[in-house]
Structure formats: structure tokens, C-alpha cells
Here is the input.
Amino acid sequence: MYNKVKLTKRQIKEDKFTTFMLTTKEYVQQNWQFFAIGLVVLVLIITGFSYYVSSQSNRTQEAAVRFARALLDYRNGNAQVAILSFSQILDDYGSDDVAEQSTFLLGKLNFESRNYPEAIRYFNLYLSRFKDNNMNRAASLAGIAASNENQGQYAVAAQKYAEAFDEYPDGPLSGDYQYSTMRCFLEAGDLVKAKEHFDRIKELYPGTNLVNRATRMYAEKGQ
Here is the structure.
């Protein structure tokens, strides 16, 4: 359930994405997607270095080394260098395991750089090629939704947030996907669909802070 997800002080300090869970409505509206996508990035970083250690073939080792270097650039804040590196990895190792992580990270990095068309392109590429990881797929759908929302395409964003929820309804961010769906329908002026998702939040997450946030949002914009 949504109200069972807890974060440690160390996680809050180390990853700026987690501040989404603790901040005001305005910050949530503008920045929540960084946390959603950031959860996946933490998994990818661990996976990337584990993959490096377990690599066997020369080609796989080379791909893993280049992926680890690109991750280091990403972690050091060298976004443009990382984008170039991950793009080259896709060109050279499109059929290797590192292609999945690189595709997702290219969506994330372009989103953070406010290059929303490219972010959408890479998130859609991820969805078309990789079918097994529900958390990554939900985060990719949320990334597409957030890119559209930040461009004022609220109806499209609402639909994509709803798809993110449907992709991983038991995930740790399912409630936030529902909240964002409601918010975007409100911004789009579709009060009927906004009310449907408001009622769904109350049904799925009773007694949580999410219901309180949704109630305030609906009271402000749904009347």
C-alpha cells in the first residue's frame, strides 16, 4: 500500500529525487517526476556495476566498461558528455544488455535537460523494445507524461500518467501516478475524469497524506 513506503534519512540526503515525497504542492507539481525516474536510475547504477563484474566476453566487457564510464559522467553532472556516451553505446551495442539501461537513461537525461521531444523519443523507444521490467516501463510512461505536462499538453499527460499507473499498479509510486493523472485532468478542464481519479485515490489510499493532498488540489481546481 502507498502509506507503507518509507525512506531513510540517508536516502533523502543522497538522492534529490526523494524530496518529492516531502515537499509542498508547488514542488510536487513541477519536480515529482525526477523522483519517479530517479528510483529507476538507482537500480540501473547498481545493475550496471554488477553487470561489469560478471561480464565474460570481450565485447560484453567493453560494453560494460563504457557503460560504467558513462554512468560516472552522469553521476558527476556531466550531462552532455553522458548523453553522447550513452548514444554511442546504443549505436555500438544495440543488442547487448547495456542497451536497455542506456535507452532509459537517455530519456532521463534529455528530460532533465528540458529537451522534451528527445526525452519522449527515448522513453518511447524503451517501451517499444523492452517489455519485462514494469518499474522501468511505468517510469518511462511517467517521463513521457511529465514531458507533455511541462509543455502544456495536459490531456495527453493525464492519459500517460494513467498508463503509468496501469503498468505497475502495485509499485511504490502508483499513488503519485494517480494524483498526477487527476491534476492534469484538472488542468485540462476535464472535471469528469478528474473526479473519477479523485474518487479512485480515496478508494485506494484511505487515511494517507496522498488523499489529503488530492482533496486540497480538487477543492482548489475542481469547483
